[in-house]
């Protein structure tokens, strides 16, 4: 039986990966600072480890003896695009790579980002995995740096390495302050939801599909960068309108009330040929489903408090 | 007065940087695992720190309160091209960057390498700083990764960052086992010095000039990558012949006795326009001088033992 180490297991994507792994024939060890979720996970071996404490990380990785690692841990709190914590997470990732390999690990799967790529001059093209990389942010630079050394270290040591490149994700479990949760919070409080014009087009994948994609990538022999997306691009304004409609308060949505963020391309969507043809993965949730599940989850959280 | 933190101060390049800084109006704090040299350095504030111990590194950097950092520390012992220690040194560099900036540091200068670049298809061209990067080794990948995050972090925080890109260095203080010291050791013992054919052309800078170049780069406002070299390319065989001649035993040199290393380009020399025109730096040691000083140093070391 495969034994999979999941870092960042308590995060938005991490919880979805645990769900996906729980459906398969896999032993899972979850590393995170917080418990991975409030739901009960009877088969889960959860370890509390601060990955930024290198000796503790090395000890934990050596102890758990996993053959596969899905590395999701990163700081993606407010301001994460430029946070100096990106440097710490690069360091932690480099430490993890070596510790995992030297503990006998054979397959390493990490989470990449569209922010690794050059966002200028994209035009209408979907970004392929081999598109030019030139990160505009420290977040993108640190993720790109970790993948570069992972690929090089893997090539030199026989480790298999794959990088699931996430463009945008949506669905149950997103943290407060991100687009969908903040619209829902405003509308449910009977307040205006002030947004940018949202003309930019994205392809947010349902986080439950994203979890399944990472689980599948971990179980497959595929190496290198693999874009992950839904394959149904939509403008941010279109998503916001659907959220407002589903909340029953389209009247409170204020598109264009906030200035657009500088540097965001008009269209930022992944080319999914590798995901479909080589990974053989097809997302099963449509956008309405993602939005409905996200709203239900958020309201359930509110009801518990 | 500027206050400069030098990491890797006990290394081949580090000692030369300390010598160069000692000639200027600068306070120097040296970090290294070993004392920086056996010579007395009365004005030097030397701290023993294991940079791979992140909390210790953070404490030391916060304590010393330097405005400038020259970061040279790295593992370049035998096998360093593929050593997993490259991952640890990437982590240490990322930790250093943040600690230095948050302790009030304003200028960061690091040591890059020609191994960051794509070595295929170079032909006869000198490599410019903006030549394509595609490291073939983990050493090159880790150095490239550190520079990428340094440049991004610097751009976002107002830190000045420069990267002195070393192609090859020669001169007093090189560790045993490298080309020149091993030829000298063999010939001085009256034994054959077995070498590759050495047809590849390089441009090794004298380490004393390299130290001066790093000191100048630290004192200048120049940012970005700056190639460092002598500007007098020579084949490895030509260098070996000069070494053997200077040792008085050209008869014991066996060029072609060892197979060539795979993947080394026929010509790997830096374009030095930025060094000359923007840094305003001109090396002062010629190759004969470098070889003579290296041999003298090595024999003096032997005599001390």
Folded structure, characterized:
Two copies of one chain form a homodimer. By secondary structure, chain A is an alpha/beta fold. Chain A folds into two domains: 212 residues, NAD(P)-binding Rossmann-like Domain (Rossmann fold, 3-Layer(aba) Sandwich); 69 residues. Chain A is built from nine helices and 14 strands. In chain A, the strands form four sheets. In chain A, strands 3-2-1-4-5-6-11 form a seven-stranded parallel sheet, sandwiched between helices. In chain A, helix 3 packs parallel to helix 4. Chain A is globular, with a radius of gyration of 19 Å. The termini of chain A are far apart. The model of chain A has no long low-confidence stretch (mean pLDDT 95). At the A-B interface, helix 3 and helix 4 of A face helix 3 and helix 4 of B.
Secondary-structure class of chain A: alpha/beta
* Dominant shape of chain A: globular
Oligomerization: homodimer
Separate helix tally of chain A: 9
How are the strands of the largest sheet of chain A arranged?
A: 3-2-1-4-5-6-11
């Amino acid at each position: 039986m495969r034994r999979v180490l999941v870092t960042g297991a308590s995060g938005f994507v991490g919880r979805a990966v645990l769900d996906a792994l729980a459906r398969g024939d896999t032993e899972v060890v979850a590393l995170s600072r917080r418990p991975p979720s409030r739901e009960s996970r009877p088969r889960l071996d959860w370890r509390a480890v601060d990955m930024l404490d290198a000796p503790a990380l090395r000890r934990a990785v050596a102890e758990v003896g996993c053959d596969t690692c899905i590395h999701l841990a990163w700081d993606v709190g407010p301001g994460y695009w430029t946070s100096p914590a990106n440097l710490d997470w690069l360091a932690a990732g480099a430490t993890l790579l070596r510790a995992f390999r030297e503990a006998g690990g054979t397959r390493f799967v990490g989470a990449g980002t569209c922010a690794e790529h050059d966002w200028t001059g994209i035009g209408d093209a979907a970004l392929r995995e081999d598109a030019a990389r030139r990160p505009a942010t420290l977040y993108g630079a640190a993720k790109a740096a970790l993948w570069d050394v992972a690929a090089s270290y893997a090539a030199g040591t026989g480790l298999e390495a794959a990088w699931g490149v996430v463009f945008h994700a949506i669905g149950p479990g997103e943290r407060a302050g991100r687009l969908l949760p903040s619209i829902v919070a405003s509308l449910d409080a009977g307040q205006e939801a002030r947004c940018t014009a949202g003309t930019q087009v994205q392809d947010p994948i349902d986080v439950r599909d994203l979890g399944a994609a990472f689980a599948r990538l971990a179980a497959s022999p595929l190496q290198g960068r693999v874009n992950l997306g839904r394959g149904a691009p939509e403008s941010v304004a279109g998503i916001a309108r659907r959220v407002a409609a589903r909340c029953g308060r389209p009247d409170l949505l204020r598109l264009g009330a906030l200035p657009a963020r500088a540097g965001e391309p008009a269209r930022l969507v992944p080319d999914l040929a590798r995901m479909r043809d080589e990974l053989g993965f097809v997302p099963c949730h449509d956008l309405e489903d993602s939005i409905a599940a996200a709203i239900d989850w958020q309201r359930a959280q509110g009801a518990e408090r």
